[in-house]
């Protein structure tokens, strides 16, 4: 019996290590649901020539393509089956409610970033959403705030750095974060791990904390099954489609994060 228990313990630790690696790789498919359906990754505009000042800086394209190929293999053979199996266990409504809870928990961080970006109206909206959905939405299960006119708005630390004038830098495809830039590495880390203290308080140890974070990411991915495959099927070059889709999302976020007077100056 003791040997069986030790074997089971070693087996579970191996499984956990595999899932931990999967968690890191989940960052590479984050682009698929980062825009919450607001970005069309198959838009023909992706392939239109852009002004030289807005051209993609990808000096390490060869290395980035190699990482992308590895991420693609890991997604198709590890992450996608994992998320598909998970989606078969829970109905979409329940998975959507779980995603709502984690989204609601991140509203205070969005409010902080909105404040740092001098978006005072959005800061008030985000704080109101958090209060209303936490109380009236039973911890964020529902979104009664939207019904009252407090619509979702995004405010990330990547946007904050952009707002402060920190340049994008070169494009990078990394195993942990997927498509990113030199500037966004730090911004993404701040946003992604802003809930780490909450996860740790919920869990008995760091392993459970990581498992909670991984569950959140798998749940999000399960709500967007098939999106990545569509990008691959409809794109001549999936790497370029993902890279340009990332930059389109960055441009949209930049437009919402820049102070109003700066936008007005650029439109003249």
UniProtKB/TrEMBL annotation:
Signal peptide (from-to): none
InterPro entries: MlaA (IPR007428)
Organism expressing this protein natively: Candidatus Electrothrix aarhusensis
Gene Ontology terms: cellular component: membrane
Sequence similarity: Belongs to the MlaA family.
Keyword Signal set for record: yes
GO biological process: intermembrane phospholipid transfer
Keywords, ordered alphabetically: Lipoprotein, Signal
Pfam families: MlaA
Protein name as it appears in the record: Phospholipid-binding lipoprotein MlaA
